[in-house]
Each structure stands twice: as structure tokens, then as C-alpha cells.
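Prompt: For my understanding, could you write out one protein's sequence and C-alpha cells?
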Amino acid sequence: MPKLHILLAPSETKSEGGDLPILNKEGFLFEELFNQRDLIANHYYEMIKRDDKSELSGKFGLKKEKDIEKYCIDIYNSATKKAIQRYTGVAFDSIDYENLSKTAQDYIDNQVLLFSNLFGPVLASNALPYYKLKQGEKLEGMAIDAHYKKYFTDALDIYLDGEIIDLRAGVYEKFYKISKPYTTFKFLKDGKVVSHWAKAYRGKLVKLLAINDIQDIDDLKALLPEDMTLVEITTKGLKSEWIIEVSGSK
């Protein structure tokens, strides 16, 4: 039975350290395409080696030298950790991966795809080094999103063989445009679209899907928490959008 796939955005903030092996193709989905990831990673590594603080400040989106220095590491010889644990922030706090059951963690590891602005589409379980790159930045003049869209679209079209839930921010559509039916979510509070805190609700949805091992999107309707009310479902082309009214502090 095809499994449900969840597409999720990464975050600008990341946790340090790691307890997995150094960067290698076995640590990634689509091993046969690792050379395309490595091309981008090598451009990034060469930038780190140049140690031009002005360049790094712009690419990292950081001003203080001590903050820049944290990321000036050899990504090819650094410990890695699962992408779901590397990324931090609002959505990932809501997922609360570390405190989930092993079964729920396995669900996330195998059914959540993140779109790294350095390594492209990765499974939540794929091993990433500590890095920093501002969203939308180019490396050696290369548009990273266009690169991954060109080389990974066919593989993703085949891989995404079940239902698809797209929880990405719109900018990550530049990495991959879905070519089959999929579901998105819009969160409203008092009739107005929720912006920043939508990340928290996306994280809550991922956690809910994982805890309940949901493989059919319709099964989610009966499991929505008290602070989420399904108002309507609209369909346009390939996209079905669930309009959710939220309540509470977020």
C-alpha cells in the first residue's frame, strides 16, 4: 500500500553537533543523485575555506563575527544528525520529535520530506551536517532551487506514489512543483489568515499524523484537536485546500 507523504519546509535555525557519520551518499534519499547534492555542497565548502567574512555575512544572513564563526566548519568531516533533529524553530518545536514514540518517529523518518536550501529534498531521517545558508542565496552564481528542481523532479515524481500533504511555504515550490493531486492547509483565526504561527500548526499536524499513523488524509478529519476546526475543503486543479479555523494562544 502506498504511504502518505508529507512535504515540509526546513528552518533557518539549526541545532549543533551530531552523532551520525560524516556526509556520504548512503545518508541520503536518491543515492544515485548524490553527485548533484555534492556539487552544491562543494561550492558551499569552498566558500567556507575562502573565509571572506563579508561574503559569509551575506550568505549566512549574520552580522556578528562570533555568530559567523560558528558555521565555519568542514561539512565533509563533521558529525551529522537527522534532518528532523538538525532543524529547529516553531514547526519543529511543535512536532516535538524527541518525545514521540519510536513508532511515531519512524513514521516521520520515512514519510516526511524536507527541502534543504543546501542539500535539496531530503527525508527527515537523512543525515545533515551543521550549516548556514540564507534562503534564496546563490552559490558560485548557481540558483540552488532551480538546480534541484532540474535534477530531482523526475525522481520525486516517481517516489511520491501515495497521497501528498504539502506543508511547505510557497518559496519551496521553486525546488519541486507537485504534478499529481495533493492537499494543503490554510489556517485562519477570527477569519484572518495566520502567518508566522501557521508554522506551529503545521508542526502540530505532522505530530498528529505520526502519532496516529495516518495513511489516508480523510482519516485526519475525525482526529483534529479542539483548537482546529475544519471549515471547508476547496479544490482547484490538483490542489485540495483544507481551511482550518484555529483558536487558543497561537
Q: What stands out?
A: The helical segments are 34-50, 53-60, 65-70, 83-86, 90-95, 102-111, 144-159, 198-211. The chain has a mean pLDDT of 96.
